[in-house]
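Re: How this chain folds, sequence and tokenised backbone to follow

Filed under: protein folding, tokenised backbone structure, sequence and structure records.

Contents: The amino acid chain and a row of whole-number tokens, matched residue for residue.

Body of memo: The sequence and its backbone structure tokens, given next.
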Amino acid sequence: MSESISQKVSQSLLQIKAVKLNNETPFTWASGRKSPIYCDNRVTLSHPEVRTFIRDQFVSLIRQQYSQVEVIAGVATGGIAQGALVAQVLEKPFVYVRAEEKKHGMHNRIEGKIESGQQVVVIEDLISTGKSSLLAVDALRDINCNVLGMAAIFTYELQVATDNFLNAKVPLDTLTNYSVLVDEAQQAGYVTPQDLDSLKTWRLNPEKWSDDRLNA
């Protein structure tokens, strides 16, 4: 993704307050780890101009890099709406992948019509460690689909995610990333120089940053 597009996406996320930055009262992730940043890209869906811009960037990326795509798949739940918007413009079938099988009805893990051997691009809203996103890839591969790659709005740029995607052999493209977002936040006056140091330290070693806060 070009630098100008990445900057514009980050600026949009900040302007609509999809991103919360707080060093003093860190956010708690599902894992229990502490973080000075929380990115809720679902907020973009409530802003038509931002929603359309993000959709168009996904469409452009897929047309350029994955022209052979046959199906768009969204990761539940954050990637469902984004993926459906993209599939509509590309005039491709859309499916979404649950975190686990339904406990009733058809017990589906993948919702929608998809065939073995089809070429799939997966849409996600954000990437942290990549674990849940790659479980969706596994589900698609289990039915012998060819996952061409994954596209997401934002990545925290954690090394564990980079390693996970490399090990899974899944190309990952994101519209923006943590480094660009933090730079834009600094320029817009969202963060102080002290906050900036803490944000950069967190990304390099989120476990140690979290442990330091828990033990403070």
Observations:
- Helices lie at 3-15, 48-65, 78-90, 131-142, 159-168, 178-187, 193-204, 206-214.
- The beta strands are 19-21, 27-28, 34-35, 37-39, 71-75, 94-97, 110-111, 119-127, 146-155, 172-177.
- The CA atoms of residues 22 and 36 lie 5 Å apart.
- The mean pLDDT is 92.
